[in-house]
Amino acid sequence: MWHATVTGLTGTPLYRFSVRPQGATAFNIVRDFSLTNTLPWTMLQQGAYEVSLVVTSGGPKEYEDTVGFEFTTRVTAGIPVVSATNNPLVALYSAPPCITGVMTVSFWPTGGTTAPQTTPGQTCQPGLSLNFYVAGMQANAEYTIQQTTVIDNQSYPGRPLSFKTGAVNDPLPSYSILTPPNSQSSTTDGIMLMAFKALHNQTPFYPSGAAFDLQGNVIWYYWDPEYPTSPEDGYVTRPVQGGTMLMLVGSQNALREVDFAGNIVRETNKHPINTQLAAMGQDQVICLSHEGLRLPNGHTVTIGSVEKLLDNVQGPGEVDVVGNMVIDLDENFQVAWTWNAFNFLNTSRVAPLNEKYTGECTLSLAKTANDWTHGNSLLYTSDGNLLFSLRDQDWIVKINYQNGTGNGDLIWTLGNDGNFSIDFNNPWPWFSHQHDIEFDGVNYEVFDNGNTRVAPPPLGLGGGKSRGYVFSLDETNMTATVVMAPNLGSYSPSFGSAQLLANGDYAFLSGNINGKQTTQSLELLPTGAINSNFQWNTASYRWFRMPDLYTYTQ
What is the DSSP letter of 204? Predict the structure, then answer.
């Protein structure tokens, strides 16, 4: 843990931590300007580094200091070693240097029949040891860990080592298995990553992310070194391919990427983002929420909330309105591109249910505000654009992003009164107040919360349950065809996620059943029948079914 102190500075200090390999020109920001003067950070790569600390109190004057240090190898006499980390379910495997090839590390329960899990590969670097986080292990269990080096398609296994995990040291919610997984369940996607989320800051706070196997055994959770005894309020937004997690967490509204041991890879928050937006002449955000998604180009997109006073648009006189901004952050978590709903949507199209804002942002222009868009999910498309789920508009919109060069124009709107016709013989064919737009290569999936559909007539049908909603799109003829929309047996007014599994089943999360601290994570057969059902004693924003903790594609 890095600690910073400053004396003689007038005002409230803000701290920014950056790192670079010794001899490199540019620093990489790890934690952008925040009130926090600590940094849980490390590197897996052996070598010399410099850490830069910049401190400001909000004025033009900045104070900077730089410290050099070196990560030395844990390996002695050419023998690999496995070490404990601060997270009791995560090990650090250190391999001796290899001259050529690619090395991976596999691990499995000692004496068991469970198939091994394997880390992503690392390229050999002569003279430098290779280090791997080993994550996906049950608590208080013995594991065998073994490296393999592949050279010219020939495998060279290393010496097996033993490691025993520790006990979980953070509270986790209780659960019930209402319908256990069976022979038709997708064992390829045998890990459940849960994004637990407290409702309206109601305690208890559970770890922002925790992973379980299909028997309900915990195999990873986010242990925060800065809050070792009690987690902060937060939630995982997405895993990242290769083995890190993106999350929104804490009182400073931080967008944070962490490694498996809990160290910060990079982090920003609304304050440095607003400084950059102001310099660009753009609206500022009152908070970040709902999304953090890694794009193929290494950028990360998130969602900000924008508050504006509109005159005689969404009501008589001056009305406070909260909309959304898509924020594209580069590899250094600096603003690279934005899209503001106020610039591209018709502000007179009020939310169908006329919701008032009750989110976690603090309003600054009025005591109450119209919750106009409530964006909650982003999807990168194969043509380089973005889909944006706007819950309170009952719409999904396609934005001209073009990998950061687009003008932000709306390509189309999807949903009731949108640009598409729909083929679905149903009293209410469209989704409403949906969450988590996903694409499986053929069809799209969303969790259809159904708030507008179940509203009293004449607006809605006067009742119903949330649905698992799968559909296809013909963007040439502008038609949507519903593949399936089964009743999920419960109503979740907020939260939720959707996913096609490897065996053709579907995973849907009802994250807030009847507005209570209750979650159901469901696997459905292609017929819509429930295959398995876990019930958790807390709300959850999303869940992800994964083959291992290192592998994720949206």
Answer: P
